[in-house]
Amino acid sequence: MDSSKKKVTIRDVAQLADVSPSTVSRAFARPDRVSAETTKKIFAAADKLGYHEEAVQTRPSRHRHDLIAISVPDIANQFFSDIIRSVQHECFNRGVGLIVSETRESASWERMAFDKVVKNADGIILVSSRMPDSMIRKCAQARPLVVVNREVRGVSSIVVDVRQGVHQAVEQLQIGNCHDITYLDGPANSWSVGMRWKAIRGECHSRNIDVHRMWPGVPTFEGGYACVEQYLQHPTGAVIAHNDLMAIGFIAGMRKRGYECPRDFSIIGFDDDTVGRMSDPSISSIHMSLPKVGNYAEHLLAASVEGTVKPGQLARIPSSLIVRESTRTRGIAPKSLACANRGNN
């Protein structure tokens, strides 16, 4: 057997990058837990060796069911419901049925849901999957699979490129005379958490802005509300929240303690959802074109089922900042929190 054709393993990548296999695994699944320099070195080694560059081969199905499945961590979260709605719309246009599963942020629930539908679905969309990469690739061998809001090598993936939106967000906060930022992060087992934190940290460092991370967090109104007590121990002039729901909860908690947004602090969320537009103040938010994400996911899965595209495709959807009332637009320093901050230094 030609040694140049042998399967590249995680140990090969680790050896070339001069790190442990467990560090390589973390770099792919939880990039926020590995330094930027080490991650760059690991990815370069993986690309050089062709690690998981080959698409996962899917066993062909004998029968067509005209039915696909989608799983999401939380149906109540508008980020996920918007994606479900756009996928459902595309399914309706094609005369295809849709099975929806809620996994409640649990990898084991997600795998159980997959095992239940795999025999009857022509293909499956995993949104913000909590399963490890190895398990996702195993699932992709059973049915055509598209992963949304996460990148898995060898499996067709659709991710939102948050870098442009984060660049605009930090720039907006800097215009508002904010010199330090707190990031209210999301769930510990979310791949996108690592991507967002890396983008925020890198953008802040490039502008000499101090950034503090409160992690992990619960991506709900209650989760944002619960962050207030810890935040007030070391307050900053601005806050970026993992999503709009956390931002609204945080504003409510601060208001109960006598602080108002944007008078005392600015805040920006992610998702640009309806509740954020209706809140008081309305939430400045990083827009991520979720209907486009859902449409593309359904089209890519349909093409995979038909065999007209190869597995392992990667699509990046751009992001952008929508400015509303929750951020200061002129260089006015925050009032109460600026004094509180000096008192805590």
Description:
- With 345 residues, this protein is an alpha/beta fold.
- Helices cover 44% and strands 17% of the residues.
- The protein has 14 helices and twelve strands.
- It has helices at 10-17, 21-29, 36-49, 78-94, 107-117, 133-140, 163-175, 191-206, 221-226, 228-233, 244-256, 274-278, 290-306, 336-343, and strands at residues 67-72, 97-102, 123-127, 145-148, 156-161, 180-184, 210-214, 238-241, 266-270, 284-287, 314-318, 320-322.
- The strands form two sheets. A six-stranded parallel β-sheet has the order 2-1-3-4-5-11, with helices on both faces. The chain has a six-stranded mixed β-sheet with strand order 7-6-8-9-10-12.
- The longest helix is centred in the first third of the chain and has 17 residues, at 78-94.
Quick structural summary:
Helix content is 44%, strand content 17%.
- Give the helix tally: 14
Output the strand order for the largest sheet: 2-1-3-4-5-11
The unreliable regions are: 338-345
Could you give the order of the helices and strands? HHHEHEHEHEEHEHEHHEHEHEHEEH
What would you report as the Rg, rounded to the nearest angstrom? 21 Å
Strand element count: 12
Distance between the termini: 65 Å
Q: Please identify the structural class as seen in this structure.
A: alpha/beta
Q: How many strands, which pairing sense, and closed or not: the largest β-sheet?
A: 6 strands, parallel
Subunit organisation of the chains: single chain
**Shape designation:** globular
Mean model confidence by pLDDT: 89
Which percent bin holds the helix content? 40-55%
Strand content: 15-25%
